[in-house]
Write a structure and sequence with these properties.
By secondary structure, the chain is of the alpha/beta class. It contains 13 helices and eleven strands. It has helices at residues 2-45, 51-59, 90-93, 108-113, 116-125, 134-144, 159-162, 191-199, 225-234, 296-307, 310-320, 343-348, 441-447, and strands at 66-70, 148-153, 170-172, 175-182, 188-189, 212-216, 240-244, 250-251, 266-270, 289-293, 405-406. The strands form three sheets. The protein has a six-stranded parallel sheet with strand order 3-2-1-7-9-10, sandwiched between helices. Strands 5-4-6 form a three-stranded antiparallel sheet. Strands 8-11 form a two-stranded antiparallel ribbon. Strand 4 (175-182) and strand 5 form a beta hairpin. The radius of gyration is 27 Å and the shape is elongated.
Length: 479
């Protein structure tokens, strides 16, 4: 009897031990399965979360419909001044115009009241004075290789066209100098008419007496209809999103990063980490987002090297560099007080100063050519609702209309500084040299900075500069 009881106890103990062991094995197997799943997800989007992974995805044909979102940082190396650098930025140098606020120069209400300061500034910024940058030519290479679906740009400098990117591949989200209209009767005027007046230090007027303004989107104006048409048409097709030289602080442009599918890789090339938490390059569970810290020209040259296009890009730049045009004579800041509007103009101006909504505060970073309008526009056709981006001080409503706005400014989130000047272009290698081999370990070691450069290694200038008004380089030039 004792032996039977002992045997029964031993059997029960053994069964309990086996059950516990099985439970432990099952839990371990579940953890292993989750780890394998995470690795599978990681490799399903990019081979590796760095520039080399992006290059490999392009070379293997996985990415054939690339959308580029470009900001003012891609034009800094062209010599176009940024907006907020202390002592050298455009806003600093606008003191000579005696504006109520530096950003007033890009506000539609102030322009209607006193257009002279903007016209003086337009003379300095006018297209034709600057060469396109290496980044612009990299975007052109994407087009020539049949990979560029569209380039959505915040810039108004039209350097994309200088670089030879076809007009149908471009969306000027904040307008440009490439067309002009009367603000009263809306008659279109030639670019040459506006340019002749600007360089003669005159304010162009229409036959009706109203002002003629380049089609640059000011605070208080709507974005072009083409922006929303191409947004709806292009983003469902996108298989790689390149985000170059933008602070992602001006809306609705910044929200474009939300419109690609969840399995589409997104590469940010910028001096500062931006776009978090929507861009997840700092998160452990990130499966598709890559951040390369540095100036845009260097980042694009590095990616071109990994793709085997490095020498081709250098040659393209050197073949198209032209001597800089002499800087236009600086307009005398003598009398920039508002002149009385012609009698016929008063009734035709579509927006009075009193009707213009109060100026919005902003956090957008520096720029050379991107206006950031603020008020809601009123389109004639239904347009896509733009979701709220949770990066920085973005709007908090769940549905928003389509007029771009700069996010509200707070002391906790001051404006990031302008991008520093980029290094001089490298000389192209002789045409007789051996072809490049893409994705070589040497190139990776020399050029690749990885996808997760920690922001703490280069403290964000957002914590260094005091808050400022809305960016307006068309009007935000680079973080």
């Amino acid at each position: 009897m004792t032996e039977q009881h002992s045997s029964s106890s031993s059997s029960s103990s053994s069964s309990s031990s086996n059950s516990s062991s099985n439970d432990g094995a099952a839990a371990e197997g579940e953890r292993l399965a989750k780890a394998v799943e995470a690795l599978t997800l990681r490799s399903a989007v990019l081979p590796s979360l760095n520039l080399m992974g992006v290059a490999e995805a392009i070379l293997t044909g996985k990415c054939k419909n690339i959308i580029v979102m470009s900001g003012a940082g891609i034009s800094v190396s062209a010599g176009i001044p940024d907006f907020r650098s202390p002592g050298t930025g455009l806003y600093y140098n606008l003191q000579k115009y005696k504006l109520p606020e530096p950003t007033s120069i890009f506000e539609i209400g102030y322009f209607l009241e006193n257009p002279k300061p903007f016209m003086c500034l337009a003379k300095e910024m006018y297209p034709g004075n600057y060469n396109a940058t290496k980044t612009h030519y990299f975007i052109r290479l994407l087009h020539e290789k049949g990979l560029l679906l569209r380039n959505f740009t915040q810039n108004i400098d039209t350097l994309e066209q200088v670089a030879g990117i076809p007009a149908d591949k471009l969306v000027f989200a904040h307008g440009s100098f490439s067309s002009a209209h009367c603000v009263g009767c809306h008659k279109e005027h030639s670019v040459e008419f506006v340019k002749q007046n600007v360089f003669a230090d005159q304010v162009p007027h229409c036959e009706c007496g109203s002002l003629v303004k380049p089609d640059i989107v000011f605070f208080g104006e709507s974005l072009p209809e083409r922006f929303f048409t191409q947004l709806t048409e292009d983003f469902p097709k996108c298989d790689l999103l390149l985000i170059l030289g933008t602070s992602l602080a001006v809306h609705p442009f910044a929200r474009l990063i939300n419109f690609v599918d969840k399995d589409v890789p997104r590469l940010l090339v910028n001096r500062e980490p931006v776009g978090t938490p929507i861009l997840r390059y700092e998160e452990e569970d990130n499966t598709r987002d890559v951040f390369w810290a540095g100036d845009c020209d260097t980042g694009c040259q590095t990616l071109a090297d990994l793709l085997g296009w490095g020498k081709e890009l250098q040659r393209l730049v050197l073949e198209n560099i032209k001597p800089r045009a002499p800087a236009p004579a600086e307009a005398a800041p003598a009398d920039l007080t508002p002149a009385p509007a012609p009698a016929s103009a008063a009734a035709l101006m579509p927006v009075s100063t009193a009707e213009v909504a109060p100026k919005a505060e902003a956090t957008a970073t520096t720029a050379s050519a991107e206006p950031n309008p603020v008020e809601d526009s009123k389109p004639t056709a239904p347009l896509p609702v733009l979701p709220v981006v949770q990066s920085g001080p973005a709007p908090t409503t769940t549905q928003e209309r389509h007029t771009p706005t700069a996010a509200p400014q707070t002391d906790a989130h001051p404006v990031a500084p302008a991008e520093q000047k980029q290094p001089a272009e490298a000389k192209a290698a002789p045409a007789t040299e051996e072809p490049e081999t893409p994705l070589t370990p040497t190139l990776v070691q020399e050029h690749e900075r990885g996808s997760a450069t920690v922001a703490s290694k280069q403290p964000s200038a957002e914590k260094q500069n005091p808050p400022e008004g809305p960016a307006a380089s068309g009007v935000e030039h680079q973080s």
